[in-house]
Specification:
Main location: membrane
CATH topology: Spore Coat Polysaccharide Biosynthesis Protein SpsA, Chain A
CATH architecture: Alpha-Beta Complex
GO molecular function, one term: glycosyltransferase activity
CATH superfamily: Spore Coat Polysaccharide Biosynthesis Protein SpsA, Chain A
Subcellular location: Cell membrane
Strand order of the largest sheet: 3-2-1-4-8-6-9
Protein name: Glycosyl transferase family 2
Largest sheet: 7 strands, mixed
CATH class: Alpha Beta
Number of domains: 1
Structural class: alpha/beta
Radius of gyration: 16 Å
Helix content: 25-40%
GO cellular component, one term: plasma membrane
Order of helices and strands: EHEHEHEEHEEHEHHEEH
Distance between the termini: 23 Å
Strand content: 15-25%
Number of helices: 8
């Protein structure tokens, strides 16, 4: 099967090189890497092209639209998504390919960890979140993070792909849609590592996250809620297996 990796990016020159380097260390190489650039004003496009990624330039838009454009332009049978501030483990795609191979499986997801930043945020992500990632596979709306989800492209197209007007929760929504047409698998051994920059908001982040989840789960929409674009670089290099 052909494997595509899609990375939405906006002004990610500080993080994108490490993300692309981690993809280069994969034991199972992707057939293509697509960086969906939302009209960055820094060196993000040049970094993507220099690394051999396919650059898809679009106007600055919602995260839902960015991921949807990546899906539509991908040529792979399977599309794996991650973020521009994320390092994937060497076996990332090999594990994805193994889990998604059965005909009845339409998607596979795992969690993420952060290795730096504000301690309460690190504690929440690294200690509190993992049980919810696992348990949510039994829910109608699994908590599948956009930086660590893969799905069969034809199934994703069939269910309409991502909600292009969503400012957040687009990752949860597409897996909710996919679960209606097949099996969604959770792998606890395929975590990725993301930057802790979101924790730079401090306590406001937890109120923001609670509000966002409440709006999504009560209205089924996330068109008016988003997270601020934080581009502070403070992550140390991380080696994953």
């Amino acid at each position: 099967m052909r494997l595509s990796v899609v990375i939405p990016a906006y002004n990610e020159e500080s993080y994108l090189p490490d993300t692309l380097a981690s993809l280069g260390r994969l034991t199972k190489k992707p057939d293509e890497v697509i960086v969906v650039d939302g009209n960055s004003t820094d060196r993000t496009p040049q970094i993507a092209e220099r690394a051999g990624a396919k650059l898809l330039r679009i106007p600055k838009t919602t995260i839902g639209e960015a991921r949807q454009q990546g899906l539509l332009h991908a040529s792979g049978d399977v599309v794996a998504t991650t973020d521009a501030d994320t390092i994937v483990p060497r076996l990332w795609l090999a594990r994805i390919e193994e889990s998604i191979a059965p005909a009845h499986v339409v998607a596979v997801y795992s969690g993420y960890r952060v290795c730096d930043g504000w301690f309460p945020y690190r504690f929440a992500v690294n200690v509190i979140h993992p049980p919810f990632f696992s348990l949510s596979r039994f829910w109608t709306h699994p908590i599948a993070p956009g930086q660590n989800t893969a799905y069969k492209r034809d199934a994703a197209i069939r269910v309409g792909g991502y909600p292009v007007d969503f400012q957040s929760a687009e990752d949860i929504e597409i897996v909710y849609r996919l679960k209606k047409v097949g099996t969604v698998v959770y792998r606890k051994d395929n975590y990725v590592t993301s930057s802790g920059r979101r924790g730079d908001e401090g306590i406001r982040l937890f109120f923001r996250m609670a509000k966002g989840l409440w709006l999504y789960y009560t209205t089924g929409s996330a068109t008016t809620f988003s997270f601020p674009a934080i581009r502070t670089r403070h992550r140390t290099k991380t080696s994953l297996t």
